[in-house]
Amino acid sequence: MMRKLLFYLALAAALSFVCAVAAESEPPNIIVILADDLGYGDIGAYGCRDIETPNIDKLAETGIQLTSGYVSAPYCGPSRAGLMTGRYQQRHGFRHNPAIQEGGSPLGLDVEEETLGDVMTRAGYRTAAYGKWHLGGSECFHPNNRGFYEFYGFLGGGHCFFPEQYADKMREWANPPDRPVTDLYMYGTPLEINGIDLPPQKGYLTDLLTTQAIAFMKGFRHRRLFMYVSYNAPHVPLEAPEEYLEKYSHIQDHKRRTYAAMVDNLDWNVGRIVSALDELGKRENTLIVFLSDNGGPEKNGADNGLLRGEKGTTFEGGVRVPFIWNWPAGLVKDRTLDVPVSSLDLLPTFAALGGTEPAGKPLDGVNVLPWLRGTASGTPHERLFWDRDGQCGMREGDFKLVRMKNKPWMLFNVIEDIGEETDLSASMPEKVKTMSMVYNNWLNPMPPARWTDPQQ
Questions:
Q1: Model-level pTM?
Q2: Which one, out of 9, 39, 235, 346, has a CA that is 20 to 30 A from the CA of 66?
Q3: Does 19 participate in catalysis according to the annotation?
Q4: What is the spatial distance between Cα 53 and Cα 57, in angstroms, rounded to a whole number?
């Protein structure tokens, strides 16, 4: 009897091991959750103390939390262009936000560039994108024509959070003659699904996007899924459900209170996605990557923690973001990783996981799985570069070179001085000279911007 019991226990253990290996070797479902204008210090796992983010914190605690996670640009559209292609957006002229996203506009992500949607479709995934696109409003730039089977959201750079009320907002905003047309278009457009405008939707936009994403997961539960969930929270307009505003009524600053409420709701919706994966039996073999598109804008209530600068700058506060990888079947848990990883790395890493090769132009991103798994030494990137209209930045090892427009170069050791408080340029002139030459050699061959900044 005892022999039989031991035999069955050994058999169960062996089957469990085989199943675990099979789950890890099978390509995972992949979900990118992109927050909009979320500051480095606005998540509990990154030191926030006045906003509750238990679901995002749990992703960090049970996954890999990057403390040197970067995006390729300090704001909006250009950052998304880098993430979507795995290439510095300067290489294809996407240096500014597209202007008003009207049909027929030539402003958008170059159609010669391969996207995450293209790569994952070729790898056999059913693909979907939700929320903010901001990569072009014409048909040729539409997500459905850039590799995404389903799209639910809006094409511009922002949207009101209570779509049912958007018609009233349009009438209200149309009255002041000095109201910028970009505001009228961006925040008041109808939501759409696969190119079809929808009637005003009842509810809060972050909730609506999540509901649609979960419906997609359930509808294609037997398919391998790639989902790009691009929330526009906590980007302006600062709007939150009343119950969340009441929760943070103790915060005196009105902007910070509303911003906190938006982040809390965003966190709740992240939890909804994780719960849906659990219900569908997909959680173990699903990779979730959570990050922000750029640093937080302090004027709108964001907090970048110890970092200097904010959205729009090439200081750390503009380009270093919360960045979490969580894949129960494929990555170790509760690990902090401090090597520089970029949003440019998503495409080549996902391609490797899906068993395919990018078919487009040479990439700037790299497959970071060896570093995430602790099997590689050194860093994925010898250097990372940033440029925004004369604002420059380059990280090389421990050092970061920064220049504001028409100002001298500054040099910081961002390992010892994460807040970029001590400028070392005067004491290390040769380092500045060498690094600035490398930077100029990177930037100078880049093609010009394909359009001008609509805000200039």
A1: 0.92
A2: 235
A3: no
A4: 6
